[in-house]
Design goal:
The complex is a heterodimer of chains A (about 375) and B (about 550). Chain A is mostly helical. Chain A has 20 helices and no strands. In chain B, a hairpin with an 8-residue loop joins strand 20 and strand 21. Chain B is globular, with a radius of gyration of 22 Å. Classes of the chains: A mainly alpha (about 375), B mainly beta (about 550).
């Protein structure tokens, strides 16, 4: 990632005496001794607030220590000084995403990849955060395709493109991408799991079974692989073998991404093998999930309708408070836009801006929200002047 | 030599793609010459009323008992009045002229209807030998009694089947089906209800950049279904509560019937939209217990409730156990559940249907042996739900082509639609499809409805040399149409097949009550067993192929 940042950042030191300390701290960082380097960088940053190389080095150290929130601040500082540094913006976006601020990450990565169309990592991260955020539309696909076009050996870019196609139920293309990912990084368990799942979904359960077993050999505790084995045996109508594998996974369902699927598989296997009591136990949990989802949606619907009534009555404070509640239940793009509009009406531009950024990351609509975002930023700049 | 081989391969590939190879399933769209002048009108509005995207019904019935199937089509109405304000909105009945054309007999028959129609279910509820028509509607449902003279009388009120209410409002019915749940020889009526809905009051659901879209069904409260017991005097009693049917709300889209556990009583499968599917297990003809989850048919392989649409319930793998195939929308697959006696095995993935159907949106459907090879195939009428999806979802379109999946006889299905003729390549907002042999040539035809368009008559012109048998039942102790009978057939080569007598097929539609079998190369049926709803078993031996066989209950 460092390589993508222009060396130009370092050229502002000239003959400053702090340069020697900076270089020493950099050496520490290069040796993996960031704990020692960070205080030095922090002192230098305070002493030389105009030199972008310092917060950049600091941000890198904080990033490597997984202190992403601190890294976010450091990279933001670099970008204040040198907003054209697309490579730094990629790191900023990456730190934002890893700090759990996905919508802002996506916005920064969009900007970075617009600034520099050759940033493979930027395109990969943009696609990855979008897919993780449930957005598997054309933008995410284009970003990941650009990433693999720029760097065909990037295993992670292929993996995320595979994930995107898998989630879009295009299993054949997903298989191609997982295969490319494995070619670039043969030991990737994540890619092998993806490949196995895609094989099974495409109806090739025998081959998928062998791959899930392969994963289990490397990682015997993989609940996902155990459930994969169970699903393959189920599809092959080998119910006792499926149940044996599923039982192994049954105690760890809290760790499973797709809990509903696991509960349903267990229920059907217990039914097929005549254990009604155990089947009922799983069915109860599944029904509770279904009921919970319905209750949540009913509550969301009520809140959304209330918010629309408040909006008609011009009570934007109530619109905002009602939609904040609704968005805790379900993150919908149109609700986020409505909330942003309410904050604008309440003269809270910063909150409105955050809503629009979240909205941009929550759905396919872009142009209309970008327009709102530009308006609000222009208004803020106008106010600042 | 090499050139010859290449040419042979090229010709073979071309033949396969064009569907010209012997035995290929092939349909010809004969709508233009059939004179079926009808347009399904939904009165689409900017308010995106949920009902607009769902008008569908078509029935194939021999209303005048001349031996040929006629066509009845259901229509919408004006919005917001939900009234058929003119002939454009009428439901229509077309008489089969036996020459590939039809004559509109709507006015003579008196079947124009009044409200906003959805689906249709046909059966002879009074056992007089003539089929009657039930129209499921958003507004009042309608029961039309066949007067046996080419006319019908609206007996809805007398019969007491206008439609049950929920919170003071008549429930929106999407479809219905006739079956004899208590084996008393009289057909009872199962009405499928959808959701709580008010005209022009739908929640606002955004189509990014394209204004408003039809809302996801989860935004609407689910309704329970209605079961009417036929009391035998032209009247029906709502027994939904006492039989347990009312205990299980869902957004019902279709109902299909079969006796999945072989206990002699017909069970009901309801495909629900955005709710777990329901399987109503019939307990001795007295009550029903809903066992969709326990039986393994409530959810798809991911444990998700799908947007269930049409359904059919009959044996696809010739093991004697009825199977369920239902349709759903894109990214969901069209699940196939194979009967195992008490539970079902989800064969969606193993059959290849999962990967084949995952990008499709389906409405009405059916399980029929279109090439008469002895293995039942699958047909689905397709279209997206959202009429403005083209603009904001990559690659998805509102109109879709219909699809046929050929049963390969080894547990797997192959999409053969591309070779099934030009009529199958035309994308449209298809909704209903009813199946039946319109020209009595032993090949099952299809009539497909199109939202805001004319219906398509798909004439089965598959060129196989396979043989067939069409069985027309006449119950005596059982209901007159023999609906609910299970037929087992053994061909001369020793292979066994099963099929169900039912008109309740697909979404909002009603199919040929005659029971069809493809016989492959066999010209003789060694044994045909009819298990009547009354419990009687009747066996016929050495039946000749290629005939419409009348079987009367002894």
């Amino acid at each position: 990632m460092t390589g993508i940042v222009s060396i130009a950042l370092l050229m502002f030191w000239q003959a400053d005496p702090g340069q020697a300390r900076f270089e020493q701290a950099q050496q520490l960082a290069a040796q993996g001794r960031c704990a020692e380097a960070v205080p030095v960088f922090q002192q230098l940053a305070a002493a030389h607030p105009g030199i972008a190389a310092v917060p950049f080095a600091l941000g890198q150290c904080e990033f490597s220590q997984k202190n992403y929130l601190a890294a976010v601040d450091s990279f933001a500082r670099v970008l204040q000084l040198q907003p054209d540094q697309a490579g730094v913006r990629v790191m900023y976006g990456s730190a934002l995403g890893l700090a759990g601020r996905t919508p802002e990450a996506i916005e920064q990565l969009r900007q970075a990849t617009r600034q520099d169309r050759s940033l493979a990592a930027g395109f990969r991260l943009l696609g990855m955060f979008e897919v993780e955020n449930g957005q598997t539309g054309p933008e995410a696909q284009a970003a990941l395709e650009r990433a693999v076009a720029l760097d065909g050996s990037d295993a992670r870019a292929h993996y995320w493109l595979g994930q995107l196609h898998f989630l879009n139920k295009d299993y054949e293309t997903a298989l191609q991408e997982y295969t490319a990912s494995l070619a670039a990084q043969p030991q990737s368990i994540q890619s092998l799991l993806g490949h196995a799942h895609a094989l099974d979904a495409a109806g090739q359960s025998e081959r998928a079974l062998a791959e899930f077993h392969d994963v289990l050999q490397r990682d015997p505790a993989s609940t996902e692989a155990q459930l994969g084995v169970a699903a393959c045996y189920y599809n092959l109508q080998k119910f006792p073998a499926a149940l044996a594998a599923a039982r192994e996974a049954a105690g760890h369902l809290d760790d499973v991404r797709d809990r509903r699927s696991a509960l349903w598989l267990l229920s059907r296997l217990y039914r097929a093998t005549g254990d009604a009591e155990k089947a009922r136990e799983n069915e109860r949990q599944l029904n509770a999930l279904e009921q919970g989802m319905n209750d949540d949606l009913a509550r969301f619907r009520t809140l959304q309708e209330q918010a629309m009534r408040y909006r008609s009555a011009g009570d934007f404070a109530k619109v905002a408070s009602t939609l904040e509640q609704a968005l805790h239940i379900e993150r919908r793009q149109d609700s986020l836009v409505m909330l942003g509009d309410a904050y604008r009406a309440l003269h809270r531009p910063k909150d409105a801006e955050q809503c629009y950024i979240r909205a941009l990351a929550a759905g396919a609509e872009q142009a209309d929200i970008v327009r709102r975002l530009e308006q609000i930023r222009a208004g803020r700049e106008e106010g600042a002047r | 030599m090499r050139c010859t081989v290449v040419m042979v391969i090229a010709l073979t590939v071309a033949a396969v793609l064009s569907g010209d190879e012997p035995g290929a399933i092939r349909f010809e769209d004969v709508s233009a010459q059939a004179n079926l002048r009808f347009t399904t009108l939904n009165s689409a509005t900017p308010n995106k009323n949920q009902i607009e995207t769902m008008v569908a019904g078509v029935a194939l019935l021999d209303y005048d008992q001349d031996g040929y199937l006629d066509v009845f089509l259901v229509n919408g109405a004006e919005i917001p009045s939900l009234i058929k304000t003119g002939p454009a909105y009428w439901n229509r009945l077309f008489h089969n002229n036996h020459d590939g054309t039809f004559t509109d007999v709507t006015e003579k028959a008196g079947v124009q209807g009044s409200g906003y129609g959805m689906g249709v279910a046909v059966a002879d509820y009074d056992n007089d030998g003539y089929p009657d028509i039930f129209v499921a509607s958003v507004t009042g449902n309608q029961l039309l009694h066949n007067n046996r003279d080419g006319t019908f009388t609206d007996v809805t009120k007398t019969a007491g089947v206008e439609g049950a209410s929920y919170k003071g409002k008549k429930m929106w019915a999407t479809g219905a089906g006739w079956f004899d749940y208590n084996n008393d020889g009289r057909l009872d009526l199962f009405v499928v209800n959808y959701c709580v809905w008010e005209v022009n009051s739908d929640p606002y659901c955004a189509a990014p950049g394209h204004g408003r879209a039809y809302c996801h069904p989860r935004f609407y409260e689910a309704l329970h279904n209605t079961l009417y017991r036929n009391d035998g005097n032209g009247r029906f009693t709502d027994v939904s509560e006492e039989t347990g049917i009312a205990k299980s709300p869902g957004r019902g889209m279709s109902v299909s019937f079969a006796d999945f556990d072989g206990d002699g009583y017909l069970d009901a499968f309801v495909a629900n939209d955005a709710s777990p599917n329901s399987l109503f297990h019939n307990i001795g003809g007295k009550r029903f217990e809903e066992i969709g989850v326990e039986a393994g048919v409530a959810y798809n392989d991911s444990g998700m409730a799908l947007s269930g649409m049409g359904s059919d319930f009959r044996d696809v793998n010739n093991d004697g156990l009825p199977d369920i195939w239902h349709t759903a929308v894109e990214r969901e697959t069209f699940p196939l559940y194979l009967g195992m006696g008490k539970t079902f095995f989800s064969a969606t993935t193993a059959s290849g249907l999962g990967v084949t159907t995952v990008k499709m949106s389906g409405w009405s459907n059916g399980i029929f042996d279109f090439d008469n090879d002895g293995w039942k195939d699958l047909f689905v009428a397709r279209s997206n739900v959202l009429d403005n999806i083209d603009g904001y979802h990559d690659g998805r379109t509102f109109p879709e082509v219909n699809s046929i999946f050929r049963n390969l006889g080894n547990g797997r299905f192959q999409d053969v639609s591309r070779g099934a003729g030009p009529g199958l390549q035309q994308a449209a907002p298809h909704r209903g499809v009813a199946f039946g042999d319109l020209d009595n040539d032993g090949r099952v035809d299809a009539v497909v409805t199109v939202l805001n368009g004319a219906p398509k008559i798909l004439h089965n012109v598959s060129t196989s040399q396979n043989h067939w048998l069409l069985v027309r039942l006449a119950g005596t102790r059982s209901n007159r149409m023999g609906l609910g009978a299970q037929l087992r057939l053994v061909t001369a080569d020793g292979r066994t097949q099963w099929n169900e007598a039912t008109t309740s097929v697909g979404y909002a539609c009603s199919s040929d009550p005659r029971v069809h079998f493809g016989l492959g190369a066999n010209t003789l049926v060694r044994e045909l067993e009819v298990r009547w709803p009354s419990g009687r078993k009747q066996i016929l031996r050495d039946v000749k192929a290629d005939q419409i066989l009348d079987v009367k209950e002894p």
